[in-house]
Amino acid sequence: MNWLLLCRLLGLVGMLVGVSMVFSLPWAFPIFGETTEFEFAGFWGICGAIACSLISGSFLYFLGRNEFGTILRKEALAVVGLSWIYSGILGCLPFLFSGSMVATDVPMTIPDALFESISGFTTTGASVLRELEDPVLVPRCVLFWRSFTHCLGGMGIIVLFVAILSHLGAGGKALMKREVPGPTSDAVRPRVRESAIVMWSIYVSFTLALALILWLEGMSVFDAFCHSFGSMATGGFSTHNQSIGYFDSPLIEFTIAIFMIAAGTNFALYFLSLRNLRSQDQSWKHFIAPLRNDIEFRIYLFILGSAILFLTYNLMSNHIYNNPADALRYAGFQAVSIMTTTGYGTGNYDTWNESSKMLLLLLMFVGGCAGSTAGGIKVIRFVLFGKIIWREIEKSFRPNVVRPVRIGVTNIEQDIRNDITVYFSLVLVIFIFSSLLLTAIEPNTEWQMHKPEKLIDCTSAVVATLNNIGPGVGELGPTENYADFSLAGKFLLTILMLLGRLELFAILVLFVPSFWKNY
Q1: Of the candidates 95, 89, 185, the residue with the CA atom closest to the CA atom of residue 498
Q2: Which of the residues in the chain have pLDDT under 50?
């Protein structure tokens, strides 16, 4: 392990996070009619966090300032995993330094702040804050930083890092490969830095466009930006306790749903569409060809459409909503929000019938497309896993048949097939082990007194954090949060959020002693 190179790169990440906090400072002032007075505690809390980030980042960079070695596989894994942990630690400082409160007379502890910060960076959207609308408990500038962590984590801190720095060379490709989610995350351009710039440019353009539309539809500037960050990053942090339901606007819900679907799509397809638009044939069909021809995108839309129809029928048949328009409105938004792993809510879906809640729970595992900002296992992995299973079934009665596994016209190599099988196995093992562990470490007295379904709640918490959803079912539904979990429980769920966002390996290797040895 090249420790000096690791220190230099981590130092740059720390300084990048510190500089990013500057965007939250203007919201401490009474601008756009958002606040009536200067938020002293929030402003100086963020200033203190900026200072700590820059000082710690500069110190690490100073240690490795003369090391410009090649970023190999081990260094790439270490930089990605440690960068997210380091960013989460720095990101929790504004909450602590500003004196933010979980609720009235309940101060935010270090585990609470770390949970909130990593939940933001990993775009999970799980929260311990009970009162979002009281600036005395949580200053608005800190609330903006909370949402801005979604923006940084959505496309990826390392992807932004690679886009900004020009000297990483081949090492940038190693870093990108370890962070961009999904098994088919090849760069959309031959030069990896150009790929990172393209991905972030498309991502920022979508985010700014959504913020403008939400503002035109009646949101305040503050709310428009925060919900735009949460939608395009598929994070789900809201500035209101009722989430999107606070606005009670079908137009806003429809707009956010469309952009959530866009965020759950492989961003490489947008680049290919734009490239086609610049070609000689600028027809509409030529422009949408990359989306139309992509099997993952088609299956993604098919699953979403099927889920919406099933939920709408269920809600109508069980008389939860008697108006078909209302049933379609709430079913459509919730299906999109859950499958894209955003976690926004327009109502309390925990009051829905059991089959509807079970479908939402299954959608949490599916997630969006590879190369998107969505979490979950990813649609393409389910497609490939289904093909692998079918091939093995066929081999049981036709052992001599050699039939390649294909996606379209592309043959899927044996290494990728092995990766898919291992990934599904690991997710299953981590899910089972974490559910058992969380159920064991949470005190029985808390659930016996207030929460009668401890098993469901703990299992739901594991599903929601491992797949970067945020809200779950039961006591973790859209109207509740994670404040009541124990210190050990929050620590476990924090690790699960990191595992889900970095797709297991970049975090798991950090716990392997031989990984850190020099061979």
Answers
A1: 89
A2: 185-190
